[in-house]
Amino acid sequence: MGSVQLRGVSKWFPRREGEPLHVLQNVDLDAPERSIVAIVGASGSGKSTILNIVAGLVRPDAGEVYLNGVPAEAFKDWRSMTYMFQDDRLLPWRTAAQNVSFGLEAGGVGRAERRERVAETLELVGLTGFADAYPHELSGGMRSRVALARSLVTRPSILLMDEPFSKLDPSIRAQMHEEVLRIKELMGMTLLFVTHDVEEAVVLAHKVVVLNPRPGRVRETRTIDLPYPRDPLSPEVAEQARLLRGSL
């Protein structure tokens, strides 16, 4: 089970001079169990702040967050949620396997179980032969796969992603989209992700939330009713992307 709901969420950030910065205003958002929801909007619309609030890294100043139907302040199973950032944040002195294992070590998982789960997850993302490689020995796409494996090894029910593929070239990004969709179905996860790329939103998401900036507020929530897999060059995807651009 994995679901996310925001109800009337607002956020201000203090500034050294002047009034606090109003980042989010009365945001409602629903990511039902096993859904894929994208958040798009101009820079400064609070997209990443929403993910940080869902992850418990930032507290909202107003409104409520519900995780798996439970108010966030009462939510206990934080290990069922993982966060994949824009930068892969791999530790350069650790091998791929050791980077993937990091979250399990912090959670007190025993060595034998860690080894087994890391091997299974590296196989899941297509990196079986690269467990002992260091980050500098891997391509950008392979590093993204390691970062994805690190997010998946704890077997989350909710995966948050903040533009994790934005630095990849289009062909590798398309491969990662296919991998994410495949793994999401295997694991039954709920995905909530931020992107500037409306085509990426259309290719991946069941639903796209469009934010207006300063303060960030929901302008539109659009359902993408296209069958998978979705070809980013198809007329159907191009038309949905055109409509989304018109809302930004």
From TrEMBL:
PROSITE patterns: ABC_TRANSPORTER_1, ABC_TRANSPORTER_2
Pfam families documented for this protein: ABC_tran
PANTHER family documented for this protein: ALIPHATIC SULFONATES IMPORT ATP-BINDING PROTEIN SSUB, TAURINE IMPORT ATP-BINDING PROTEIN-RELATED
Domain of life according to the entry: Bacteria
Domain ABC transporter: residue ranges: 4-240
Keywords: ATP-binding, Nucleotide-binding, Transport
Gene Ontology MF terms: ATP binding; ATP hydrolysis activity
Family: Belongs to the ABC transporter superfamily.
The name this protein goes by in its record: Sulfonate ABC transporter ATP-binding protein
Organism: Methylopila turkensis
Transport is among the record's keywords: yes
